């Protein structure tokens, strides 16, 4: 019997039909294997996590034990250099900043409980619960950061801050953060909570060269015993570690008070103080103690600015600057800085002290036009290191803001030039809600932009901004780096520098530098680069240059502002032996009896090389503290410092940009228009003194029943006969000269009135004699037509003719352009008014008013040619 092979079945089975083969069987899902794999992965993850944790903890202990002496060790000073000019010039050391001896340790037993609570509430509310690192706080911070799409909250504990402060730099890397956490774990293992808090309070930097809580209490409040501190003082100190420079009550009392309020709210929310205590402490105004003043240092204003910029632009805090031995290279011009400090130390350049001995204050900033580098600055007279720097202080700029808010936007629009005609008449704007006045209460009628800027008229720039729209002024200022209040500053007062928040000398110098640099604006900066003690670069300035206005606008503005320092301008005291442009500014007092004096005075100006802003005034203005010297004082300071600082620098001129046309000067205005009715000719004879060669004249007329004056004729000569008048009617005339070559208009003339006798009688009812009836009645005023015909300055005249009028500039009207014919028999369908050549040439120079009063006082006595 044969044994079955492995290819044969030992059982009887039916043969399956061919062609119906089944595929491979599907494997069933094995839940056991999944669960087993998960358990194994979890165990491995736990093992890895524990291993990492152990490594991190061991690393922290190693770092702590190796560098424990750093808590008591003074570190290397940081050096600041001025980058001297010249190819081979070596940087000059100008300052050394370091941790001085102003550090006093205090035992935690001598720290009042509420002072400890202020720091815990502000910096680490779960300080007593965590083990050096608060994972709950880190998670909360991450959630908030994700929600807000930015880093809005940190998760560092007091222990981590101590670890970073003692052992690490502020380098932003994951490795550094991990190291910080490992050291924090080690610190928490080695020390008690009170010991950690004691070391933290003795170690941290509080600004103003104060290290530790005890030194800070002395500097800011003059108190050696911490138990003497009041709640508001404790909260003020707890507010400082976040940003010592920013929240210093000495340097920024308003920001300090605001931050103090945040700390008090945290203390109240966490039950450390009552609501009544919070409200009382929040309301206190800070007054610095006499001992708070520190000694004056060379270049103190500039050095303080460098430290602020390092923190703001490069995220290097002040404590790190004072301990890490950095080398900081700056844009300072040491010659300019020394001259500035010498000038500010000379009382002859400033107003005399107030009756209580208080000195008037001042600040100045100089910017390099081409680079935005800060050449020199001073934050005040007798400025103290880490004190209140007035280069940041926002004050009302007065007329120095007119180029930014009014004249700049007009030039940028392309509709105006320096010779465009503006209206300086007394006007109420905004439906009568705003009625500015010129400083001397005198108006000037039609004036060129050049004259308005040179003599600092007030009505003209307000009129101009009203034509342009307030939004144009706000946007122009924004382009120059000055952000106005978008709602509260949306009014015409900004044309005169009436701002909600004011502007700082630093902002004004930066903005004006665009005028000097063909419309390009550089980011102002003091730091060029920062290296460590071994020369490795850790930060560097990256140029930021932007074309913010047209080159033509900048050039035309320079032409305007050059006129300010010339004879007859308001800034003549700023002129010296090189091209200078600039603008004065002052803001008046609203204190009864002394309204003629000022609150703030300015001069902002530039040469082709540098721009400078000078402010002068009292920090707090009242009836005993105000400015009496006017803006001439700031102009004189500008001249003194700029002229000496630039001495030896080759003189250059302002450059006219390519393809920018030279603005065309407008014709001089007519001031002696006279109107005479000639009975025998049944016409009105208009005469005036010619104002120059190649000048034609637009003659306007308004009848007593007409709303607006209408163009009567364009005449090449200074004599016109109007034979198209009605009997018994009264007419008003004025003349606008314009260049025959460019069609640029000049100012409107005075208004001359004439009454045409009714029929063949004179106004008194008598018969006329054979001699002409003369009624020259030039309207008293400033050259403005009372009806105020609408005409856009800086553009070609737009007459409002009668139907069929087709007069073009420089041409003569067709017969159909004549006004309606007179009803007089002899005047029916009379001829058009015709220009008549003068019998004698005029001298082109009209007399001044006989009584010597300016046009703005409504007195005009014209001279008959």
Write the layout of secondary structure elements.
Layout lengths: L30 H36 L11 E5 L9 E6 L15 H11 L11 H14 L9 H10 L6 H17 L2 H11 L9 H9 L9 H9 L13 H17 L5 H9 L16 H15 L3 H6 L3 E4 L3 H11 L16 E8 L5 E5 L23 H12 L7 E4 L20 E4 H6 L4 H10 L1 H10 L25 H12 L3 E3 L4 E5 L5 E4 L4 E3 L3 H14 L16 E8 L9 E9 L3 E8 L14 H14 L28 E5 L4 E5 L7 E9 L6 E6 L3 E4 L7 E10 L11 E5 L21 E3 L54 E2 L30
Parallel strand pairs: 1-3
Antiparallel strand pairs: 1-2, 3-9, 4-5, 4-14, 6-7, 8-11, 9-10, 12-13, 13-14, 15-16, 16-19, 17-18, 17-20, 19-23, 20-21, 21-22
Protein name: PBP1A family penicillin-binding protein
Organism: Paenibacillus chondroitinus
Keywords: Carboxypeptidase, Cell membrane, Cell shape, Cell wall biogenesis/degradation, Glycosyltransferase, Hydrolase, Membrane, Multifunctional enzyme, Peptidoglycan synthesis, Protease, Transferase, Transmembrane, Transmembrane helix
Care to describe what's here?
The chain is elongated. It has 20 helices and 23 strands. Strand 9 (527-531) and strand 10 form a beta hairpin. The chain has a 5-stranded mixed sheet with strand order 2-1-3-9-10. It has a 5-stranded antiparallel sheet with strand order 5-4-14-13-12, with helices on both faces. A 5-stranded antiparallel sheet has the order 18-17-20-21-22, with no helix packed on it. It is of the alpha+beta class. Mean pLDDT is 81; it is low at 1-17, 769-831 and 838-865. Helix 2 (113-123) packs across helix 9 (253-269).
